[in-house]
Records
---
Amino acid sequence: MYSRAQSGQNSVARVIPIVPATTAAVPLYEAHQKVYPRSVKGRFATLRWCFVWLTQIVFYGLPWMSWNARPAVLFDLAARKFYIFGLVMWPQDFIYLTGLLVISALSLFLFTAVAGRVWCGYACPQTVYTEIFLWIERHIEGDRHARMRLDAAPWSAAKVARKIGKQMAWIGVALWTGFTFVGYFTPIRVLSNEILALSLGGWEIFWVLFYGFATYGNAGFMREQVCKHMCPYARFQGAMFDKDTLTITYDAERGEPRGSKSRKERQAASILGPGLDGVGDCVDCSLCVQVCPTGIDIRDGLQVECIGCAACIDICDTVMDKVYGENEARGLIRYSTAHAIAAHSTRRELWQRMLRPRVLLYAAVLTTLVVALLLSLLWLRKPFRVDVIRDRGALSRIVERGYVENTYRLQIMNASEQPQSFRLEVSGLPGLRVASEDLIEVSAADSRAVAVRLQMPPDSARPGSNPIKFHVRESTVPGGTEVVERSVFLVPW
């Protein structure tokens, strides 16, 4: 095959080779590379493990705590009652759940505006369980290089034993986590007896396995992929960051040009001070990459994958101690802000700029909501609730002596953990009286629905709908709480 190119009167034949088309597939995405985080010690690693212990003691311990001969925290969906220590909540109290969710969202906004993804790095369940599963993995398979060698080695009896041992330990933790999760909805001691008797219900089996499988998959296999690709927080956090947000930052001005240092260069740096010998402080050991749970290089700048765990700070400080002397060159990687790095701000100036209007506004709104929620729970919340529903089957009727009668369904929910007696009275119309039981007994933390008949003398009110009030008062305690509910009394035309 060839083509002919013409120039003036002459034509020259030129052979152009034809390259056969290839059918090889071109990948659009890079294949996932497994991350092998290296173990690290330091003040931030210790702090992170403190949060692991704190969160897990609370999570695993609360279902076993007792309060007034019942679980201290129990969400009884079947009975539509929620026990939180001394509080008994009903579905009508969901307004408090709304307030709690709003407070949680504002807290997240405040923490993010101040210190970036500090929640992700220390208290997020994904981070916490990944740390636990990594701890198991390290104790069975070894640290980073040992795990890499084990995965690259051919299968053998020793490798199979280690892999099976790790998986069994992971499955044990995951199933215990699922069991504890279900223990918040079914009393955990009852749940334990059902498991021992092999009489566990279908839904309980489903949720134990589902939550256990989610823990096993997320913490054992997906790990950093959840933070990088599935977590929505990583996507909208940028809207809450600014140049005064405290993040993990690499001081490029001090660290570059990076590279390994000879003994002579290290001695010169120790005399002149870090960075004063014309060589950057970063020795390019790549340990900051090896300890990162998401596998990023913090020296490339702030990245969406960074969860703020500070493992790179701990390992970099350790390297700086070995290269330049203890505590003399720490902070090449540190918690700082973009403004502080650019302006070489002191620690005091850094904190002064962090207390900016947005942070103060978040803090003020958050404090106001917390105080309002506590006040409403402690002082404004009634120890019982009342719902009044008209009987729609019989709007009104004429009974003996010409009295007009209306029927209602009264439901009283006792939010205390003591049996209560309630006295019922009505007002709003002359001569209106309760023609049925007016003293209602309700068991502890229970609800009772009763039919209430109201009667009124004839010609005591205009025909049609007349507003009335139900007064329900605690009779067990002198001067007890009173709840007033409005309704209407229908008089036939």
---
Amino acid sequence: MDAIRYIVFIFVFLIVNTPIYLQLYRVFLINKKPITIISLTALYWFGAIFTENFIPFIVVILLLYRYHLKVNCSEGAREDALGHKADDGESYMRDINVWRFDRHSVLNVTIATLVAKVLVTIINAIYINMLSLIVKTEIQPQEVVTDFYESGFWPRFVLFFVIVIFAPFVEEYVFRYFLYDKLFLPRMPRGFAAFLSAIIFTTAHYNLSGIPSFFGLALFCTYMYEKRGYFAAVTAHMVFNLSTVILLVFIKM
């Protein structure tokens, strides 16, 4: 079992951090001196190992602020102030700019997410009841949920930021932008790209009891990404996770 957990950890670590590093290298490091590339590469990977999602989160925010938002700041813009050309795949066959932040849509996204959360939770509860009839061992929740439920105040405080803030920005960048939009969508039909990225997202969370929730969340965030862009997908992911955290707090009380 420990060997399986170790393999899963490596898989999740690589699937999350490799796309972010590749984008970091392409945007900021490719023209730097070798010593700078080596130093910043080591800093990123060691930081990613020892800080959970914090270093990837910082890098994603840097990429958003210094690259994506600059490149896409005006309609038809093809090059930013640093001389980087926009990716054709970033507006692949859609009418919206996926990097535009529409603060007026936050409430609508939040309401839609809460409705989706209720539906997914009901489906997941039915799934768990059916699964319990097949699997005779006790069905365990996701490890981070157990850690949050059993932790003291300060560890729980840190986990709150990891779950509600860091994870949505990082995971939406990896699974919706990089895998779904940049890697899969130019090579396969839209529905299959959404399904495949959702399968990888679900696998990366490695929890038998939460398969419908993770798969449903992935598809819903893909829908939001398509209709309203990256920040809408992040908002949906944050609301989804926050509602779970609030429920855990009430259970703890």
